[in-house]
Amino acid sequence: MTAIADQDRPSGRATELLFAATFVFWGHFVARAAELDLSPTQAHALTVLAPGRLMTMRDLADGLGCDPSTVTGLADRLEAHGLIERSAMTGDRRVKALALTHGGIDRRSRLLERLADAPESVRALGDEALRDLAAALSNILAGEARGAGSAQL
């Protein structure tokens, strides 16, 4: 990766490495999704939808960080694969609610299991380094959530 930050500052080096790691883990995510015949967007939606909980199309769009207009096609594809059911919300039939089907819950569970199987490069770090890394990443995400109100995990 071409240097994108001031290498003399620890924050610059950390930012550069986080960007590089993002692409590595995006590849991991895409590969795990493909193993389950899911597009990356479908897999992301399954991680946002929670078993036993109705979610509006707008809430799903917010969870995915996308425009609500793009969720209709995604919901169509998930429904066609038998992974979600769509229904009218009680009190306002214009608002559509999404719920995972039994098949969707199963596929979501299998996806999360595969995603939790960390790449060898991560497992090789050792427990102490992994705890430190997890703490640092948690702090970054918490800071982003406070600032933007949208970090998910």
Radius of gyration: 18 Å
Number of helices: 7
End-to-end Cα distance: 27 Å
What is the 3D shape?
globular
pLDDT below 50 for ≥5 consecutive residues: which ranges? none
Largest sheet: 3 strands, antiparallel
Question: How confident is the prediction overall: mean pLDDT?
Answer: 89
Measured as a percent range, the helix fraction is: 55-70%
- Share of residues in strands: 5-15%
Structural class: mainly alpha
What strand line-up does the widest sheet have? 1-3-2
Order of helices and strands: HHEHHEEHHH
Compute the number of strand runs.
Answer: 3
Outline the structure in words.
The chain is mostly helical and 153 residues long. It is built from 7 helices and 3 strands; from the N terminus they run ααβααββααα. It has helices at residues 10-35, 40-48, 57-64, 71-80, 102-116, 120-123, 127-148, and strands at 55-56, 84-89, 92-100. The protein has a 3-stranded antiparallel β-sheet with strand order 1-3-2. The chain is globular, with a radius of gyration of 18 Å. The two termini are 27 Å apart.
What's the arrangement of secondary structure elements?
Blueprint: H1 10-35, H2 40-48, E1 55-56, H3 57-64, H4 71-80, E2 84-89, E3 92-100, H5 102-116, H6 120-123, H7 127-148
Antiparallel strand pairs: 1-3, 2-3
